[in-house]
């Protein structure tokens, strides 16, 4: 309308106009018409809105995820390629600003995670992430972001920038095992979204401590012995619970902190032991918890005798079978039986309390 009015007013004087001013004028008119047809907020996401995207994932009363479609849904046949599914280093560390509409249509948007594997260190967190991300409705950040413990000052937009793009039907995940034992993390995650689903991979705390120590020793060869670090006085059986490798295994104490901010129904516990003996069974429960169709099944796994662990079978299309890297499944440092028994005695009351709290006996005898 404005274009027409302007044009009719100027028409009587048009004979006075030069060629170039006619040109500039018509360009101006085209711009006005474009603005009227495509207002800016219909094609761009608001950068400050952390939940902006094609989908919102909400939790229903049963604790399952419900995906709500918004207006920018990509066509259903657009699926990410293997390359796009793996969170490439190019994605990591790039602070994302809203993308042009064409790439949104093709690859979706970066969204804050709907589900986070928050722990525990050396529990089997990498295995759970690598196994669940073969599900077509899951995409995950490839590296540990450490946003809620080390990088919180960088802000949610920085965090979102680390996430892979997701389509309407996909959920976003990340894993940072240190979150479970960091005091501030539960509060910070609940401030991001109280609907965030939490996954904790737990493992016998004694084996976990030895695994943790084995890893540190591989990087620091002149480390004191395991016993020197684990006990204040071994002959009296006094354990040093301030040593991180011991402290992390006091699961019940850490869980109490999480339960101040999240209901138990929003936290799923994976057995690190069963993840090795029955990966498909554990993954079935993870998929149920996330409200996903059970697509990752025993068809996807085989037991690799050389590695001594389950690995992912070769995908039908291409590629090779995939086992986790050398840093997963290391041969543990030998610890004498007495020390192990003392640690078992130390952890027993905490474990029993933990079983009661989560309603499951993990049988760490
Ligand atoms: N499929 C498969 N392949 C290899 N390793 C497996 C697998 N499933 C579980 N695990 C166990 O995962 C342990 C490492 O745990 P995390 O991935 O949580 O470690 S880390 O905290 O990220 O460093 C790792 O601990 P260690 O055996 O002590 O190395 C493994 O026992």
TrEMBL record:
- The keyword Glycoprotein is assigned to this record: yes
Identify the residues that bind 3'-phosphoadenylyl sulfate: 122-126, 203, 211, 328-332
Disordered: region residues: 71-104
Q: Which residues cross the membrane?
A: 21-40
For this chain, the family text in UniProt reads: Belongs to the sulfotransferase 1 family.
State the species of origin.
Answer: Mola mola
Return the protein name. Sulfotransferase
| Membrane topology qualifier | Single-pass type II membrane protein
Q: What UniProt keywords apply to this chain's record, in alphabetical order?
A: Disulfide bond, Glycoprotein, Golgi apparatus, Membrane, Signal-anchor, Transferase, Transmembrane, Transmembrane helix
Q: Where is the active site?
A: 122 (for sulfotransferase activity)
Location within or outside the cell: Endomembrane system; Golgi apparatus membrane
According to the lineage, what is the superkingdom? Eukaryota
Q: Name one GO molecular function term.
A: [heparan sulfate]-glucosamine 3-sulfotransferase activity
The Sulfotransferase domain covers which part of the protein? Answer: 114-348
**Per the record, a Pfam family?**
Sulfotransfer_1
Q: What InterPro entries does the record tag this protein with?
A: NST/OST, P-loop_NTPase, Sulfotransferase_dom
What EC number(s) is this enzyme filed under? 2.8.2.-
**GO CC terms in record:** Golgi membrane
């Amino acid at each position: 309308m404005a274009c027409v009015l302007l044009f009719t007013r100027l028409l009587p004087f048009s004979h006075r106009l030069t060629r170039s001013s006619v040109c500039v004028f018509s360009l101006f008119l085209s711009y006005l018409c474009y603005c009227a047809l495509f207002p800016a907020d219909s094609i761009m996401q608001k950068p400050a809105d952390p939940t902006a995207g094609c989908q919102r994932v909400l939790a229903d009363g049963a604790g399952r995820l419900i995906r709500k479609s918004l207006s920018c849904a990509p066509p259903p046949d657009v699926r990410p390629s293997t390359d796009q599914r793996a969170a490439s280093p190019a994605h990591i560390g790039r602070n994302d600003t809203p993308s042009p509409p064409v790439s949104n249509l093709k690859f979706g948007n970066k969204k804050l995670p709907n589900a986070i594997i928050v722990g525990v260190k050396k529990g089997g967190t990498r295995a759970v992430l690598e196994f669940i991300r073969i599900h077509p409705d899951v995409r995950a950040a490839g590296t540990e972001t450490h946003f809620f413990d080390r990088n919180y000052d960088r802000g949610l937009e920085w965090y979102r920038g680390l996430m892979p793009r997701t389509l309407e039907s996909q959920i976003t995940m990340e894993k940072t095992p240190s979150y479970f034992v960091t005091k501030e993390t539960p509060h910070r995650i609940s401030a991001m979204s109280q609907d965030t689903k939490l996954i904790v991979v737990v493992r016998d705390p004694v084996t976990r401590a030895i695994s943790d120590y084995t890893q540190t020793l591989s990087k620091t060869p002149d480390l004191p012995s395991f016993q020197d670090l684990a006990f204040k006085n071994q002959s009296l059986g006094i354990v040093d619970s301030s040593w991180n490798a011991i402290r992390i295994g006091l699961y019940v104490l850490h869980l109490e902190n999480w339960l101040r901010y999240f209901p138990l129904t929003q936290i799923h516990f994976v057995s690190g032991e069963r993840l090795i003996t029955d990966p498909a069974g554990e993954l079935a429960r993870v998929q149920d918890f996330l409200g996903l169709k059970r697509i990752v099944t025993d068809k996807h796994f085989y037991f690799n005798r050389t590695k001594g662990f389950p690995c992912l079978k070769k995908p039908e299309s291409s590629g090779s079978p995939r086992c986790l890297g050398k840093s997963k499944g290391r041969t543990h440092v030998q610890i004498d039986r007495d020390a192990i028994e003392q640690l078992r005695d130390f952890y027993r009351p905490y474990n029993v309390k933990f079983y009661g709290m989560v309603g499951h006996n993990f049988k760490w005898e």
